[in-house]
Amino acid sequence: MVILISFDIDGTLEVGDPPGVLSMDLVRRTKAAGILIGSCSDRPISGQRIIWEQHNITVDFAVSKQQLPDVKAKFKADVYYHIGDREDLDRQYALAAGFEFLWPDEALAEPWLHLDGDSS
Amino acid sequence: MTTENAPASMYRTTEGLGVWEHKGKVAAVGIGHSPTTRRWDGTPENTMGANSIIALRRAIEDAGVSPDQIDGLVLDPVTTTGAHWPEGQPIPMDVVNAFNPTDDPLDGIAKLSAEWILKNMPELTNVKFTMYGLGCMSHAIVVAAQAVGEGRTHTCLVLKSWHNLEGRYNQSGISAADTVPGTFALSPGRTLWGAPGSYGTALQFAEYCRKYGKSHDMMAPFMANSRRNGLLFPEGYWAQHRPEQLTAEDYLNARWIAKPASLFDNDIPIMVSGAYLFTTAERAKDMKQKPVYILNHASSRGAQRSILPTLDEVEAETASTGRKIYEGAGITADDLSFENMYDGFSLFHQFHLEGLRYRGMQNGDALDFYQTDISIEGPNPVLPSGGNIGSGRSRFWMHTDCIQQIQGRAGARQITGVKPEIGVSGGPMPMGGNFTVWSASPG
User: Fold this and answer.
1) Which domain holds residue B66?
2) B-chain residues within 8 Å CB-CB of A50?
3) Is-contact B123 B129, C-beta < 8 A?
4) Domains and CATH numbers, chain A
5) From the CA of B195, how many Å to the nearest CA of chain A?
6) Is this prediction's ipTM beyond 0.85?
7) Residues of chain B with pLDDT under 50
8) Between chains, do A44 and B245 touch, taking CB under 8 Å as contact?
9) Measured between alpha carbons, how far is residue B89 from residues B93, B167, B173 in Å?
């Protein structure tokens, strides 16, 4: 089973402004589980890449908020998640792009690790 | 001491006034800034009032004067970035009482009176002149310049402060009311009921692109240049907190806020205070920093036919502003070393630029000009301050930069492709603003 997870940054990840509840270690565990990961944020794309590089995390994509459909078109997966803290800029964009949506506190439980099937 | 708004007579709003009678007789000497933060953290140390005191004391120290030499204070009492104290939310009295409060407990937190400043800067023992320049630093500057010129004050502090509270801006205050007046509701950026703040500028820019055959993509070099300059501005928000460039890829992939205005065409609201020390040309000679002489100030008070100005109205008004700026200073466009006109929203900077006829520009030329060398190293520097794009919403980086460039104190941002002798700054809007001409010599 191929899973793709898109992380918002500000208000979602611990490195965001404001900081969110999701640690970079959680992101690393997700990556280690063979899940396709990346960021979808209002931050400049180059700035998103720098954050990942600073934390030695190789991501599959870094895009702006309105580009989730491009991510879905580029990567074939069985399940697409977007995790974010805003109703208008995260949840609505995610649902419109055909992603499942999780609030950051829901993502803390890492529900994708418990999906049936192979995660890679 | 009661502080009044500056009377209309202090502004130079029309063409045909001739050279400013105080040309070269007023000078900026000292500069002070507070640190920047994204929002108030709830502590006394991070209030807008505390930032104001920091900025003022730094400006005094920078000028090398003793506080008792100060006899004037001009400021903008409105400090909101769009964040209003929510109705019914308790005011933290421990914060209020950490200072010497006025009758209004939000004074120093979400608004700022001259009285609050004087109560909390006891070293200012000789201030006899206070006045408000409403709107932004551009406004306060022209009031202070005129006041010094007229002899109302000889050593005057000029202050602009901003507060930004938790939550999204422009979604509290009147925006949270059940009803709002019709015109207010329809105006861009004012309320939840209206369009985004950049909507009007976006419409003008769209018409500009149609009329002159340009595109939004052509803004990318200007945006990258502005952020680059901002990252060389150690006083600014991006340099202090998120030193990230804004590449063409970043800009062109940003989501639309009010197409063709994207996210990065809108600036970021922050908390910051900035202050200058103005004095007479005579007194400036004995101060610590090189005097930067004010050759003129001019104001724009354009009238529009409807809710949003048209492109034609904008172009007519900015051209008039350019003529007023030059007439009062007794200079021409050829005399400008550099320009620092306002950029918040980025999509109207070209209106200011073309109105100035900067480097011979005519209407419709600016976006092509952006494709050439507009860097601080080149012969045609555009917005060397980086403006709000480069350092966050203060509306004063452009003024600070003009003073620093001419004083030779702009550091890594110092322009090198042209000798910084005369600069111009001001704003905010193409249809309404206040503008100042700065010079290395009194003219």
Assistant:
1) 13-164+270-284
2) 244
3) no
4) 3-111 (3.40.50.1000)
5) 16
6) yes
7) none
8) yes
9) 12, 13, 12
Residue B73 lies in a domain: yes
- Out of B258, B284, B310, a domain closes at B284
Residue B61 tokens, joined: 């120290």
- How many angstroms separate the Cα of B435 from the Cα of each of B7, B242, B295, B304? 17, 30, 11, 20
Span B271-307, pLDDT tens digits: 999 999 999 999 999 999 999 999 999 999 999 998 8
Query: Are residue B146 and residue B215 in the same domain, yes or no?
Result: no
Chain A nearest-CA distance from B241, in A, is 10
Q: Examine residue B122 and say whether the peptide bond preceding it is cis (omega within 30 degrees of 0).
A: no
CA distance A2 to chain B (A): 27
Structurally, chain B folds into a number of domains equal to 2
Helices B349-356 and B199-212 sit at what angle, rounded to 10 degrees? 60
Q: Cα separation of A80 and A97, whole Å?
A: 10
Structure tokens at A16: 């965001």
For tokens 């860097």, the residue is B375
| Residue in A closest to B238 by C-alpha | A47
Which residues between 371 and 410 in chain B have a beta carbon less than 8 angstroms from any beta carbon of chain A? none
- In A, which residues are within 8 Å of B254 by CB distance? 42, 44, 64
